[in-house]
Write a structure and sequence with these properties.
Elements: H1 12-16, H2 23-41, H3 46-50, H4 52-61, E1 68-72, H5 78-86, H6 121-134, E2 142-147, H7 154-163, E3 171-176, H8 187-195, H9 206-209, E4 213-219, H10 223-234, E5 240-245, H11 253-257, H12 288-302, E6 306-310, H13 320-325, E7 330-332, H14 337-349, E8 353-359, H15 360-363, H16 367-375, E9 382-386, H17 403-407, E10 414-416, H18 421-432, E11 439-442, E12 466-467, E13 475-479, H19 484-494, E14 498-502, E15 505-507, H20 511-520, E16 523-531, H21 536-546, E17 552-558, H22 568-575, H23 579-598
Parallel strand pairs: 1-2, 2-3, 3-5, 4-5, 6-7, 6-8, 8-9, 9-11, 10-11, 13-14, 13-16, 16-17
Antiparallel strand pairs: 10-15, 12-14
Length: 599
């Protein structure tokens, strides 16, 4: 398809020059552009296709960027980016130094708020609306598009509870498509289905109970109907909500039929929709999430007290394996990280062993619950922290680089980071045998290094550091987690100039081993796949300071800044923790030690 009409649109002002009769063609071109671009470049496909009509209609009716528009979750905003001056740069989406995969204030004046995590839009838009009310600017519109199950989160309801009595000019557009990344769950989903069949005389919607004027539900792919409804709402004041029904993946049959896979399918054939096979034919190591999920099923077969919990990520975290075999012991609680943690705590009080699996970046949202409801009460909840470390193209909102720093300071909590798939498997088995308090296990996104990972279970002493090399040299490299792979390769490339110690346990640290290390080596290099500030290295610095060791200490990790999108390899290079970066530091320190000895 030619994109002749789309090529004329560089901003919403250009869009408004089109006649309403031209908009259906623009919708087709825009949808086709997204399909063909993501077929090659990858990205969040299904959500983007589902809101094409809505995106065109909102920018056609409202006066953005003066009218403030927030997309929630932000992976729905590809069409928005293309229509707001970023079409020619869209091929850089999610790439190093390219466009962010989510709305970003610093990227465009049309991105009024950054939305990498869900359910924040109503709070943000309400803040903007209250600001306009204080300024007595009663013409400005404040619009939140909330979809992909984000409305079910507690934060959205907290915001609606406030907005309903705020007297502000706020419009919520509920993009109701019955799915987030996995199918939506919970009573609210059933309520939305009931609303399709209600008459004017039936009971009020939940939104009307929050003092919102409720409109809909209407077909979100009926462009003419959308335009008319939005035009009416543009001239209506106060808190109001428009409920639209859409199909995630609309316009690509494969994406409509398999919405979970086509949320972000990777490369695919733009014509057929078929996901392209990998060029790699040899047997490959599994993803860490699959090692977790399949191992959990094995130990759950042995222990009926084990339960699994996830906030809306059963397939992403591979908890769907347990969900299939043990549906009564596996719980998807929706986009509700705070609830997931305290729900797990409640189960733990009754003798169950909850494995609560949450992406590192999303665990940040339940920090109070980890401290107050789990650690303070010393409850045996096992936090399985998926996507720890640098995660790649999803960028700053999704990197799991803060968990070591924010968990290390919590009393009663054991913090672990396996170096590979077998160690992850054995940690899961060991903690399933019984623990006295909370344990957090962090592991990365993507594939590991071991093809033959499914070894017999072994109970391990994860509190003890392991010496992986013994070269009788002056440099000791201390690492935690899977960054050990980079360290091992760097030591191999630089020759026998450093010894490598792997610390599975970040808290509590193996102090006897640390005493031996600080007495034996002249220089200590600490490497982690997380923020340096407050991280694993800082823990060792605290140890050295307390015990008055004066050795040279060099910490390598993620610097004190937000890291944008790129491949994991590119970002490790930027942070200096790639194999090459580690080699460079090892060589430099080695030469410094030689020079110091000669002098």
């Amino acid at each position: 398809m030619n994109h002749e009409l789309l090529a004329q649109i560089n901003n919403p002002e250009d869009l408004k020059k089109l006649k309403p009769s031209q908009l259906p063609l623009l919708v087709s071109e825009l949808r086709d552009f997204i399909i063909h671009m993501l077929a090659v470049k990858e990205g969040h496909l299904g959500a983007s296709l589902g809101v094409v009509e809505l995106t065109v209609a909102v920018h056609y009716i409202f006066n953005t960027p003066d009218d403030l528009l927030v997309w929630d979750v932000g992976h729905q905003a590809y069409a928005h980016k293309i229509l707001t001056g970023r079409r020619k740069q869209f091929h850089t989406n999610r790439q190093l130094n390219g466009l962010s995969g989510f709305p970003k204030i610093s990227e465009s004046k049309y991105d009024s708020f950054g939305t990498g995590h869900s359910s924040t839009s109503i709070s943000a838009v309400l803040g903007m609306a209250v600001a306009s009310k204080i300024k007595k600017d009663f013409k400005k519109q404040h619009i939140a598009v909330i979809g992909d199950a984000s409305i079910a989160s507690g934060m959205a309801f907290e915001a609606m509870n406030h907005a309903g009595i705020s007297g502000t000019n706020i419009l919520i557009i509920l993009n109701d498509n019955d799915i987030g990344i996995d199918p939506s769950v919970g009573a609210l989903k059933l309520h939305f289905k009931d609303l399709k069949n209600r008459s004017d005389n039936n009971s009020i919607s939940i939104f009307e109970a929050f003092n919102f004027a409720y409109y809909g539900p209407i077909d979100g792919h009926d462009l003419s109907l959308l335009l008319n409804q939005l035009e009416e709402l543009k001239n209506t004041l106060g808190p109001r909500i428009l409920h639209i029904k859409t199909i995630k993946g609309k316009g690509l049959q494969k994406a409509e039929e398999n919405q979970v896979q086509y949320h972000a399918p990777g490369k695919f054939d733009a014509t057929t929709g078929n996901v392209l096979p990998s060029n790699i034919t040899n047997e490959q190591p599994p993803k860490f999430q699959d090692v977790f999920g399949l191992t959990l099923v094995e130990i759950a077969r042995k222990n009926s007290k084990i339960v699994g919990i996830t906030p809306a990520m059963p397939s992403g975290s591979s908890l769907h394996y347990m969900m299939k075999e043990f549906p009564d012991r596996t719980f998807d609680v929706g986009i509700a990280e705070q609830h997931a943690v305290t729900f797990a705590a409640g189960l733990a009080t009754q003798g169950f062993i909850p494995f609560c699996v949450i992406y590192s970046t999303f665990l940040q949202r339940a920090y109070d619950q980890v401290i107050h409801d789990v650690a303070l009460q010393k409850l045996p909840v096992i936090f399985c922290i998926d996507r720890a470390g640098l995660v790649g193209q999803d960028g700053a909102t999704h990197h799991g680089v803060f968990d070591i720093a924010f968990l290390r300071c919590i009393p009663n909590l054991i913090l672990l980071a396996p170096k590979d798939e077998i160690e992850l498997r054995n940690i899961l088995y060991t903690v399933s045998l019984g623990i006295e308090g909370p344990v957090a296990i962090r592991y990365p996104r993507g594939k590991g290094t071991l093809v033959n990972w499914r070894m017999p279970f072994e109970k391990i002493d994860f509190f003890k550091a392991a010496r992986l090399t013994e070269n009788n040299c002056k440099i000791a490299v201390l690492s935690t987690g899977t960054i050990a792979t980079n360290v091992t390769e760097a030591i191999h490339q630089t020759g026998p100039i450093a010894d490598h110690y792997h610390f599975t346990c970040i808290k509590p640290l193996d102090e006897p081993s640390l005493h031996q290390i600080f007495k034996k080596y002249e220089t200590i290099i600490i490497i982690e796949d997380g923020v340096v500030t407050g991280g694993f290295g800082f823990g060792i610095l605290e140890f050295a300071n307390f015990h008055k060791y004066s050795k040279k200490i060099h910490i390598m990790g993620v610097p004190d800044q937000f890291i944008n999108q790129g491949t994991v390899e590119e970002l490790q290079e930027l942070c200096g923790i790639s194999v090459g970066g580690i080699c460079g530091v090892l060589d430099t320190v080695h030469l410094q030690n030689i020079s110091s000895t000669e002098n």
